[in-house]
């Protein structure tokens, strides 16, 4: 099994992006370390329209779905003794999807109040890929400055802004687009990801 991928879910709108990414990652031979912040769990349950206590059942169902090859471990967001809190624990990369402006601010300032923020900080200090799928609009000056600070520290800022050139028909088409872009930056191939290949008639427009 390949090195682990840390997936963090923070308290921003965008549960569908996280769920779609997990569905795709689970079909790869990976070890997934899932960290959901307390507010992330509340938003996730609200947007998926299920009681919060049923989230564990949802993830159990995902882990037992057909074609699953990955191992997924769900970590306590308050457990700063978890392996991913240390740089000596080797992982491949981390994704925070969706990334709230609070979590972005913590990452930009190096402030670690929970395991998700600590894991992101460790990922940066160990020079491993950190992808922040931010979800907020409009953005104020503080948000933009924090994005720049996180970027300068080594993070990839990837706003949840799906393209439409692949003619999406469903919400899943949109979440799949963002998941595909995340996979690109993780170095994980997804052959069926929608990609721009130019206009059919070959003319510039």
Description:
This protein has 205 residues and is α/β, with parallel strands linked by helices. It has a single domain, classed as Rossmann fold (3-Layer(aba) Sandwich). The protein has helices spanning 15-25, 38-48, 55-63, 101-109, 115-125, 141-153, 171-186, and strands spanning 4-9, 31-36, 71-75, 91-99, 130-134, 156-157. A six-stranded parallel β-sheet has the order 3-2-1-4-5-6, sandwiched between helices. α4 packs across α6 (141-153). The protein is globular, with a radius of gyration of 17 Å. It starts with a strand and ends in a 19-residue tail after the last helix. The model has no long low-confidence stretch (mean pLDDT 93).
List keywords for this structure.
Rossmann fold, 39% helix, alpha/beta, 205 residues
């Amino acid at each position: 099994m390949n090195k682990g991928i840390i997936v963090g879910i923070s308290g921003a709108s965008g549960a569908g992006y996280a769920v779609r990414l997990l569905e795709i990652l689970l079909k790869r031979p990976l070890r997934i370390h899932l960290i959901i912040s307390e507010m992330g769990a509340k938003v996730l349950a609200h947007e998926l329209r299920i009681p919060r206590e049923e989230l564990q059942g949802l993830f159990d169902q995902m882990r037992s779905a057909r074609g699953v090859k990955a191992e997924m471990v769900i970590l306590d967001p308050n457990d700063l003794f978890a392996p991913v809190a240390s740089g000596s624990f080797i992982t491949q990369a981390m994704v925070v999807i969706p990334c709230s402006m609070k979590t972005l601010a913590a990452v930009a300032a190096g402030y670690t109040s929970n395991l998700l923020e600590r894991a992101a900080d460790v990922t940066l200090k160990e020079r491993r890929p950190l992808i922040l799928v931010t979800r907020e609009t409009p953005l104020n000056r503080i948000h933009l400055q924090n994005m720049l600070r996180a970027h300068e520290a080594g993070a990839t800022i990837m706003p949840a802004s799906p393209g439409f050139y692949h003619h999406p028909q469903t919400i899943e088409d949109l979440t799949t687009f963002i998941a595909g872009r995340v996979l690109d930056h993780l170095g994980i191939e997804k052959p069926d990801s929608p990609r721009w290949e130019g206009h059919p008639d070959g003319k510039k427009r």
